[in-house]
């Protein structure tokens, strides 16, 4: 989900910040798995949205949003997701850090809806 | 700070997730301001680290980490930062969402230090 349609329920809800460095190889299966995991996440109870950016140097930040901590835990233990996690450690990621957070406040700005700026 | 040196104190601490879309223009002053804000943030009490990625489409995610919620609030009200925020709304950002979160758990993987993978 892009910020054009941000997940924006009232806090509190949960965010999982996944920061990674990967050593990209052509046809290493990463893109297909990433797409599949995004689709699968969207089917899970409590899924609110996902934002993901990776730059040319291989640094990526993906944030997924969830209604409850139980939803975060359930997604972490999903069988197909567990296989993807294992492949990630074996094949794709040099390093990653995963942080589970409780979103306490949020503020959105959009030039189009607020108007009045030069 | 890159994930090669992740901010990694024991939770709880705070994360500010700033997701933005910007309409990049050459010489619009954004890069200089972003660098200055990163330097300034590092001088603030309670600053733990910062990770930032922007892709070729203009979608960016920046996450800054702070020891306490008070440190987050103080940075949000810093005079020079307030000017940058105003310029951001006027000049640089089409849209952004800022979320203040309490980091409750974190897990780090590094292929080099865990070893044993193919």
Topology:
The structure is a homodimer.
Chain A: E1 13-22, H1 30-42, E2 47-54, E3 59-66, H2 69-76, H3 79-92, E4 93-110, H4 111-114
Antiparallel strand pairs in A: 1-3, 1-4, 2-3
Q: What proportion strand of chain A? A: 35-45%
CATH class value of chain A:
Alpha Beta
Number of folding domains of chain A? 1
Give the strand order of the largest sheet of chain A, numbering strands 1, 2, ... along the chain. 2-3-1-4
Describe, in short, the structure shown.
Chain A has 118 residues and is of the alpha+beta class. Chain A is globular and about 40 Å long. The interface between A and B is large, with 46 and 46 residues.
Plain-language structure description:
2 copies of one chain form a homodimer. Chain A has 118 residues and is of the alpha+beta class. Chain A has one domain: Alpha-Beta Plaits, CATH 3.30.70. In chain A, 33% of the residues lie in helices and 37% in strands. Chain A has 4 helices and 4 strands; from the N terminus they run βαββααβα. Chain A has a 4-stranded antiparallel β-sheet. In chain A, helix 1 (30-42) packs antiparallel against helix 3 (79-92). The longest helix of chain A is centred in the last third of the chain and has 14 residues, at 79-92. Chain A is globular, with a radius of gyration of 16 Å. Chain A starts with 12 loop residues before the first strand and ends with a helix. In chain A, 23% of the residues are buried. Residues 1-6 and 114-118 of chain A have low confidence and may be disordered. At the A-B interface, strand 1, strand 2, strand 3, strand 4 and helix 4 of A face strand 1, strand 2, strand 3, strand 4 and helix 4 of B.
């Amino acid at each position: 989900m892009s910020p054009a349609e941000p997940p924006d329920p009232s806090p509190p809800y949960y965010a999982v910040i996944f920061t990674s460095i990967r050593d990209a190889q052509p046809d290493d299966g990463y893109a297909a798995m990433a797409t599949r995991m995004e689709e699968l996440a969207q089917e899970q109870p409590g899924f609110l949205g996902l934002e993901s950016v990776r730059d040319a140097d291989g640094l990526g930040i993906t944030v997924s949003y969830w209604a409850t901590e139980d939803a975060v835990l359930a997604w972490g233990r999903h069988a197909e997701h567990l296989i993807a996690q294992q492949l990630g450690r074996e094949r794709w990621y040099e390093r990653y850090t995963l942080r589970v957070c409780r979103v306490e406040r949020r503020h959105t700005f959009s030039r189009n809806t607020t108007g009045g700026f030069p």
